[in-house]
Write a structure and sequence with these properties.
7 helices; 9-stranded antiparallel beta sheet; binds flavin mononucleotide; alpha+beta; Pnp Oxidase, Chain A; 31% strand; 290 residues
Length: 290
Amino acid sequence: MVISQSPPSRIALQRLHIIQATTGTTPRSQMATLVPGAAPSRAPWRDLLTSHLNKTPSYDFTIATVAHDAQNRPVPRVRTCGCRGFFPELELHPNGQEDMWQQVDEGENPAVVESDMLAFTTDVRMEKLSQLESSGRAIEAVFWFKDLMAQWRVKGRAFAIGDPRGEQAERVARSEIQKGLRVKHGDDHGDDGSGLGKWSWDKAVTKYFANHSPVMRVPSDSALGLGQKVKDLHDPVARANFRVVVIQPEEVERLDLTDYENPRRWKWTLVSQPVGDGQGDQWAETELWP
Ligand SMILES: Cc1cc2nc3c(=O)[nH]c(=O)nc-3n(C[C@H](O)[C@H](O)[C@H](O)COP(=O)(O)O)c2cc1C
């Protein structure tokens, strides 16, 4: 077994902190902006997983959570979900982009932050969110990229954002997720803070909502009728139930079956570093056998 510590990134990375605006009439949930602090480096597995995702036309993953039966015994639950890539970066289809331009200030957030956290969307009435709450937010996501003969498992904790009422759980979720956000360097928006001030959680969630076609932006109230189209990206009924779930990865495993005679498996584990050492948490890589 070989254990190697991933080297600290040469790029100065910054963790982000939320500033809550306290003036004006805009709801607090829409006024939260980001300013730089100190940050996690890009995970060593991220580029390879990204390249596998990019080579896969439409990628679903299997999401496992922990439920409890009537005797309070833990029981596994798994289901298929559509992976929406790494939060908050999402390539919108043209119709969704048009809706964003028409209904959201400046079209969308400036592309100033990235993360190693995978995202998917869901509805609050489904069971996985309450299972996350009752199980310490434990989650595992699995991809099987058959054409690439690669399996990826991402284990960690997941947080859901998008509650328009901005209650305590929403604030906790945002605060956890922002720990994994880092400023993107070298793009048009730069890291001089100009883009960060315009970034908002509301726009981030709205973009995921816009990614659904109007007929899939489900109005929750059955009295409104099934199959209703929701063109309004801030439709209060549809948005009350819509959530973006973001996975904070803690352990990632890659299984490479390209050579059936010689399968290879690697595991990366996030190792906590003391607060204030300026390095951020580090990924330790282990090659597993068998
Ligand atoms: C191809 C496919 C994609 C799906 N995508 C999602 C998704 O992105 N989000 C989601 O909540 N459910 C999705 N579902 C439905 C889930 O598999 C599951 O039935 C639903 O989320 C309810 O699960 P739960 O009550 O255990 O939370 C998808 C199902 C399939 C077959």
